[in-house]
Amino acid sequence: MLTIILMLISVICYSVILGMYKPQAAYKNGMLFAVKLPEAAAGHEELKQVQAGFNKQFLYASLWMGGALVPMLFLHDLSAFQVIYFFVWSAVLSVVMAMPFRKAFARTLALKREHEWFVGDKRVVRTDLRVAQHKNARSAPLWLFIFPFAMSVGLLWWSFRQDDQSYGVTACGIFLTALFFLVSLYMRKTRAKVYSMNTEINLVLNQAKRRALSYLWLWMAVAENVHVFLIFMLVNNETGNMEGAWLAIIVLFAAIPVGAIYAVYRKIQALERDMLEHDGKTVYTDDDEYWVNGFTYHNPHDKSVFVPKRIGMGGTVNTATVPGKIIKWGSFGLIAAVVVGVSFMLIRSELTSPSLAVTQDDKVEIHYPMYSFDFSLADIKELTLVDAIPGGTKTNGEATNQYARGHFRLKEAGKARLYVFKNNPPYIRIKLEGVTIYYNEKDSQQTKKLFESLQQAGQ
Question: Which pTM was predicted?
Fold first, then answer.
């Protein structure tokens, strides 16, 4: 199952990057490789050579990175190293696939300067409109976020009431809702953009964009709370094998937000294109000097923190501003901390096995990082040796093709703690009040000896 999930995410990332960089080789909306050029220059012979070189290099990079996914399949039985390989592949993908574009951007910009193919003003134009006080008139009211917040708080309260160890899952709803709320709030404070000499056109386009994006973030908050609810229900479902449902939910998480963002931005771009084509007073700006490598915006003359991307959809930060620097380096630091932390935990889990021992004061202690547990011998309701573990789902723990450790909810058994090597019977089953424990050693003979020692200690 982990292999399917990682491969699915990898294919989605791979496809998104292909769809982002490949179209840059075509002259569109006055740009080629994110460099603004006059239409007359688009067919220049030297630019055609740049396009041909990019297509060749990008094809090679695409084939190499696609082929690099194959080794991940052979790590099927080494889950920790498979996940680490995925992290490494993702990092390399973002660098390797960008290299042909960066070279093409630099070469195109050099040709533009050499031939003086400048467009409009050489300074970026981004300022408030004289009618900007009306720019939020059509945005979604902020109070509507009460509904997704109520959904997330209600779900978290429900999980506490059931005491099912799903707090981490349900807390995601509050985090995502707060994130979308802050994005929507900040969007309303961004400067309006000048599209045309016509003030009415500027007002309509800025209002339309803000309205579409404000409802997008509101809808995303509601949709993600629904997704969190579905995951919560799956975690607490005791009907057996749910791999198909899990896969469907993962696809929804990836497809619905991406599809919604794509649809909204396409709608905005279509409106801008349609209105400006009939306006005849479009304001052209030439600010290539502020776009480092074609996708990093660094303009000390612009106080806007977020600006529209030249590549892909959405916005990017202005790294010349203090908030932009904080967002950029904070994001890098957070990603690095998560990757390093997860990798450390996975390697530790791969190299560390649980241990069970009976102490002199008649207590049973199970030692394992993050999921250690102890109880008195007198609390044992039933002690048996079984050859199978009921199906179920993980609520807070680790589960790979080789082992399962932590909190689970099992069919018929209900709440359970597992410290087992999968498909390696027998298993020691210990029933306590409100929870069942399953434990085994990698060596089946050691499991049997440990079971006998527990029986003797309990007599």
Answer: 0.64
